[in-house]
Amino acid sequence: MASQHEVGILIGLLVGEGHFGGDGRQPQITLRMHVRHEALFRWLERTFPGGRLYGPYEHGGRRYYQWMVRGEYLRVLLPILQQHLTPELDSYAHGRLLQMCTRYRRQLRLEAPGDGPGMHDVDRRGGRAAGSGSGSRSGAKELAAADGPRPVDEGPSESRAAQIFRTLRQEP
Predict the structure, then answer these.
(1) Exposed site from 47, 76, 104, 146, fewest CB < 10 Å?
(2) Residues forming CATH 3.10.28.10 domain(s) in the chain
């Protein structure tokens, strides 16, 4: 599992240079930078082994590498991104992440806001939503709608993520 320091570096890179989107069929996160940052890309490969490094490419006078995260590994990173990539940190990047989650909700196995038992009563940080203790549901529903899709509860996500990280690091 990546350390908080390593997660912080990843979040910073994605806020500054990352793209949250997809190809119409599957969601993806893309980080594209000049070849002079090769050492950083090699660090990403080691630290977040579920991503794939492509390149170097040369296009339009630019030489660059591209690191992409898709599929199961994107589902592993998503809770980390949702926890740390907040509107307070960077509203634009947070909005792009929410757009990707909304557009590819099914592929990411996310529930729509308010779906499932009690989903509208809990904010994404695990606390009670505003107005949920007083019998008023409207404040909680607005909060849920603003926060976007939520991961489907498939048990303890940290242990699942740790298993996948371990498996990926063991592969040659």
Answers:
(1) 146
(2) 4-107+158-170
Residue 127 has pLDDT above 80, yes or no: no
Q: 3-state DSSP: the chain helix, strand, coil percent, rounded to 5? A: 45, 20, 30
Alpha helices in the chain (DSSP H): 4-17, 38-47, 71-84, 91-103, 138-147, 157-170
pLDDT band at 1 (very low <50, low <70, confident <90, very high): confident
CATH fold for the domain made of 4-107+158-170: Endonuclease I-creI (3.10.28)
Q: Would you say 161 and 82 are in contact if contact means Cβ atoms under 8 Å apart?
A: no
**113 close to 148: Cβ distance less than 8 angstroms:** yes
pTM: predicted TM-score of the whole model, two decimal places: 0.66
Q: Are 31 and 44 in contact (CB under 8 A)?
A: yes
What is the C-alpha to C-alpha distance for residues 134 and 121, in angstroms, rounded to an integer?
A: 11
